[in-house]
Amino acid sequence: MSDIFAQRPSGSRRKREVTGRMVLLCLISFFAVVTVVNVIMMTAAVKTFGGLETASSYKAGLDYSRDAAASQEQGARHWTVTSRFDHNSDGRLHVELSVLDGAKQPLSGYQAHVLLAHPANRRLDHEVEVWDLGNGRYGGDTVVPAGQWDLEIDITRDGKRYFRSRERIFLKDR
């Protein structure tokens, strides 16, 4: 009977033994793969990080009371600011604002600042150069891809902000 077990059929392989060297190579290979994947993921994370919403959250917290008072003053003015977007023949996006006071009279002589802020990446923001078109209208052109944007509008005069709004908009292709 022992002869039967001693003989191997032809073509069969001998079982591999698990040696210390094999275990060491498997461990080194495993951690090498994990390290390579971590390096790839960290590189991608650092390259695609668009920045923080605020540079200093402490300073933003201190400014909260001032911003709340400015918001109440803005509400008391009862201004109406509307925006309109059209594509020019050259493919640029034309942004036009209409600014009316509480009596629905056009307001001119202010500076309008328009920012199309990307919701996820500050590096993709587009500041629109806006000029006074007269009769309470302000306009400017920019090149911006279609998609979701945060429209930020500031109306100022002599360094004082009179109006600020921020809203999510969706821009379509032509």
Protein model, in words:
- This protein has 174 residues and is α+β, with helices and mostly antiparallel strands.
- It has a domain at 79-171: Immunoglobulin-like (Sandwich), CATH 2.60.40.1930.
- Helices cover 31% and strands 34% of the residues.
- It has helices at residues 2-6, 20-48, 57-62, 64-77; strands at residues 80-87, 93-100, 111-117, 126-128, 131-134, 137-142, 147-157, 160-171.
- The strands form 2 sheets. A 4-stranded antiparallel beta sheet has the order 1-2-6-5, with no helix packed on it.
- β7 and β8 form a beta hairpin.
- It is elongated and about 105 Å long.
- The model has no long low-confidence stretch (mean pLDDT 88).
CATH class of one domain: Mainly Beta
In whole angstroms, how far apart are the ends? Answer: 87 Å
- In CATH, the topology of one domain is named Immunoglobulin-like
**Number of helical segments?**
4
Number of strands: 8
Task: Tell me the structural class.
Answer: alpha+beta
Binned strand content: 25-35%
CATH level 4 superfamily of one domain: Macroglobulin (MG2) domain
- Overall geometry comes to elongated
Order of helices and strands: HHHHEEEEEEEE
The share of residues in helices is 25-40%
